Amino acid sequence: MGASFDSPAVNHAWSEDEGFGFELWTDDDKDLALYYGAIADTSAGAPSRITVVLDATGTLALEYTDGISVGTHPKDVLEDCETLFGVPGR
After folding, report:
1. Is the pLDDT of residue 90 over 70?
2. Number of domains present in the structure of the chain
């Protein structure tokens, strides 16, 4: 899933335009951004781009906070998850 400070309508439109195949949540109270360190306080206008991967128990398994390239990041995260968790069906 993804999260942003944008309204549900804006998130929906972006998701449709980009073909984003996952849930996109509106973090209008900025709780998720604060909890995961994407912002330092609620006065932030926009969060830093970060990725966190939780395991099946909700424990932080992977975290990416620097050098996130929109073009290659999803592939990099998938490869890291396959290494860490295995590949389904293998």
Report:
1. no
2. 1
